[in-house]
Amino acid sequence: MENNVLNKLQLYRTKWFSDLADEKMLANTLLTRPHEVSPVLSYIMGRFNQGSVIDYITNGMGKVMTIENRQYEWRVMIESERAVTIRNAQIDGTTIVSTDVPGINGQPITLWLSDKWFGPGAIIEFDDKEYQARIVAEPYQDGENWVYTVVLADGQAASYIPPSLLAAGKQVSRVGSAYEEGSDEADIVNYQTPFMLRNHLTTMRLTYDITGDAYSSVMVIEIREPGTKKSTKYWAPYQEWIALRQWYERVDYMTMYSKYNANADGTVSLIGTNGRPVYIGAGILQQIAPANRKSYTTLTLDLLDTYMSDLSFNIRGFGERKFLALAGEMAMREFDRVLRDKASGYTLVDTKFVTGNGQELTLGGQFVTYKGLNGAELTLKHLPLYDDPIRNRKLHPITGKPLESYRMTFLNIGMKDGEANIKKVVRKDRELVMWHTAGAVAPGSGHSKSITTLRSNTKDSYQVNFLSEQGVMVTDPTSCGELYCDAE
Predict the structure, then answer these.
(1) Residue among 84, 83, 96 nearest 145 (CA)
(2) pLDDT per residue over 388-421, tens digit each?
(3) Residues 247/466, Cβ–Cβ less than 8 Å
(4) From the CA atom positions of the chain, what is the Rg in Å?
(5) Burial zone of 358 (CB within 10 Å; 0-12 exposed, 13-18 middle, 19+ buried)
(6) pLDDT per residue over 85-111, tens digit each?
(7) What pLDDT sits at residue 69?
(8) What's the mean pLDDT in 133-139?
(9) Could you give the CA distance from residue 425 to residue 73 in angstroms, rounded to a whole number?
(10) DSSP per residue over 382-427, as a string?
C-alpha cells in the first residue's frame, strides 16, 4: 500500500518499527495517551480469521510426520515402462537420409538406442504410433549405446518408416511382443531403481521484548482480535497477538517458498553467528517436478483440460484424480471467467449462483470446482500469500496486480499405500517451542510483588521466544504441478 495510506479517512500514516517495545516507542507511534477513552478498532490488516491454508492441508488433516533427525530421505518409484532415445539409424551400414525408404521390402534397419531395454521379438513403436517394428536379434553393446536390428512388423513389402522418425533424438517404446510357433526367444523384464529424495528441517525463530512500563501502558485505541470476543487496551496482549500472527505467516511462507541449501554431499556452506551451519529445507514449490510447471498468458479451458490430463497420468495408485490448487485471487478470477464462458452456452440452473424471484434475479457466486475429462477434478483454494503486494512485486502489465496472484499450484493431497502425498515434517518435541525470559515483569503473572519470586535477570522487562524445527515433504513430486502467468 503506497505511502501506508489506506484512504482519505485515515488520520495519520502507519509507522513501522521492530524489536523492543518500550513506553517511548508506544508514545512516539501515537499508541498511548494519558487516560483517554477510546473506540474499539479491529486490526484491519490481520489475517486471524483466515487461518493457515497450508497448515490445514497438512497438520489440520493429521498429515504430520515426526522424526528425530534433521535430515529425512525418501524413495520415489516411477513407472518402469519408458521411451528409449534413438542415437543413430542405418541401412546396410549407411546412415539413413531423408530420401531413403527404410524397411521397404522387409529390409532390416539397424538402430543405435540409448539403453538395453528390449529383447528379441519385442514389438516397438515410433513417435508416430502408426509405425511399428519387430526386433529380430539379440542387441549388442557399442560404446554407450545398444545396437538393435528391426524389420517392419506388418510384414508388407511396400511398408517403410519415414526417415524423420529415425533421426537422432527421436524415441521408441514397447508395444508388446510376438513370436512364431516353437520359438525359444523371449522379451526381457525391465527394472528401474527408485530415486532418492532428501530434505532437511529448517529451524525458525522469532522473539520480542517488552519493558515493565510498556506492559502496563494503556493504548489510545482498543484492539479486538478478529473472530473472537477478546479485546484489550493494553500493549502486551496486542503484542502477543501480532507476534503469533507474524509467526504463522512466516512459517507458511517458508513452507511454500524456502530453497534447499545443502551441497551435493549433504553439507551446508551457510554458517551462522556461532559457527554452526544454517540448514534451509526445500518448500513445496521447489519440490514440485520442474517438468510439471507450465506457463500461460491467457487461461483457456483447453489449456486447463490438457494440463489436468497430463498431470493425471502421474497420480496412478492414488485413487481418484482429484487435485487441490492453491491459487491467488487473480487466478481464481481467471478460472471463474473460463468456466463462465463455457457455461454461457448452456442453461444454468444452480441455486448457488442464481438468487431472487421473478424479475429480480441476481447472478452471483464463483466457480471454484471443475470436473474435466476422464474423471479429473480440480478444486481451487485461495492462498492469500500469492496476493501479497509487499512480497510479490512483479506486476501484470495490464491489470497491475501481482503476477504471483495468477499462480495455481496443483497439489495431489491423496493417499498412496497409507501414506499422505503431502505432509508436514517436524522434529520430535520441537514443532512449536515457546518460552519467556522474565525480569521484573513476566507475561501472565505481571510484575513481581515478592522478594521470594525467582526471576532470571534484573531487567525491568521480559522476552518471549518462538522456535520451530519443521519442513514439508512432497512424497511424489511428479503428481503435483503449477500453472503460472508469464505476461511480463
Answers:
(1) 84
(2) 888 889 999 999 999 999 999 998 887 777 788 8
(3) yes
(4) 31
(5) exposed
(6) 999 999 999 999 999 999 999 999 999
(7) 86
(8) 94
(9) 11
(10) E-GGGG-TTT---B-TTT-SBGGGG-EEEE---EETTEESEEEEEE
Say how many CA atoms lie within 13 Å of 114 toward its Cβ: 12
Cell of 442: 513476566
Burial group, residue 182, by CB count within 10 angstroms (0-12, 13-18, 19+): exposed
Q: What is the 3-state secondary structure (H, E, C) of 43-91?
A: CCCCCCCCCCHHHHHCHHHCCEEEECCCEEEEEECCCCCCCEEEEEEEE
- From the list 358, 371, 383, the residue with the least C-alpha distance to 323 is 371
Q: What is the 3-state secondary structure (H, E, C) of 341-355?
A: HHHCCCCCCCCCCEE
**Most trustworthy range by pLDDT among 19-23, 149-153, 171-175, 478-482:** 149-153
Q: Are strands 322-327 and 377-382 parallel, antiparallel or unpaired?
A: parallel
Q: At what angle do helices 329-343 and 301-312 cross, to 10 degrees?
A: 110
Number of neighbours of residue 75 by Cβ within 10 angstroms: 10
Torsion of CA 23, 26, 27, 29, to 10 degrees: 160
Q: How far apart, in Å, are the Cα atoms of 124 and each of 110, 129, 154, 192, 355?
A: 13, 9, 12, 19, 58
Please tell me the distance from the alpha carbon of residue 251 to that of residue 255, in angstroms, as a whole number: 6
Asked if residue 255 lies in contact with residue 239, where contact means CB atoms within 8 angstroms, the answer is: no
Q: Calculate the average pLDDT of the chain.
A: 80
**CA-CA-CA-CA dihedral for 104, 110, 114, 117, to nearest 10:** 80
* CB-CB neighbours of 154 under 10 Å: 12
Look at residue 232 in the predicted model and tell me its pLDDT.
64
Q: Give the DSSP per-residue string, 236-281.
A: HHHHHHHHHHHHHHHHHHHHHH----B-TTS-B--B-TTS-B----
Q: What's the helix, strand, coil split of the chain in %, to 5?
A: 20, 35, 45
Among residues 185, 192, 193, 191, the alpha carbon closest in space to that of 123 is found at 185
Q: Produce one character per residue of 393-405: b if its CB has 16 or more CB atoms within 10 Å, e if not.
A: eebbeeeebbbbb
Lowest-pLDDT range of 51-65, 223-237, 286-300, 410-424: 223-237
